[in-house]
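So, can you check what follows?
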Amino acid sequence: MTPQSKNLHLTRALAKIANEPTPRAPKPAPKKPCRPLLLTDDQVREARRLHEFKNVSAREIELKFGLSKQYVQSLLSYQTRSKIFP
């Protein structure tokens, strides 16, 4: 038995004796929802099409779509959203 569980056990016993409501263990934090996608599938296709077929630089794509350099690089190298082809 850990010191924390002993403490909780004693606190509940004392609360029962004093007719006080028993303290409850804190509930776990709720799961965070998944991060929303930054681009739609059509926007991903357009960005890749611009880069691969029209020789638009990654920097220009960053500025056009308002994305970070890292995200654009992973998008153009198919590390992110790899199942979407132009």
